[in-house]
Amino acid sequence: MKKGFTMIELIFVIVILGILAAVAIPKLNATRDDAEQAKLATNITTIMGDFASYYTAKGSFYTTGTTKVAMNALTNVPLDSSGKLQVKTKDCLTFAVEDGTKIKITPAAVASMDPVCKKVLAQDGIRAALTNASGTQVVTAVASKMASTVATSGVSFDYASSGVSF
To answer: Which domain holds residue 22?
Structure first.
């Protein structure tokens, strides 16, 4: 007589593996989103600190005369050519030099924003980091933790004023 597994034993093993996979895959996706949130929060605070450091070192966001500094010269955080910070290939925030002392931060439209971006922008620490000297926030959280209303005009940070601290 040959020794081996019966068909019923093999089916039970396959069913058990299927159940384990059904539990593990959603957990893996949630872990990836958590990692994206942590990365985005770190990138936003790093960018804000880099802007402040650059302004402190150079005294202006102009290279010469009225030529604005390229965004990739202000920070090592990867921004696309137009100063957009993206999450999973969707726009989250756009950073632009407004004049010699100001950086303008404009969020993407809420409808096209990735849920990871919405969650990060709703965090208290990020909202505080994205609040300018006059108290204007880039993001104002509403009742639901997942939803947020975004100021479409953006917020300017005047690094020459003393109200912004990092």
So the answer is: 7-158
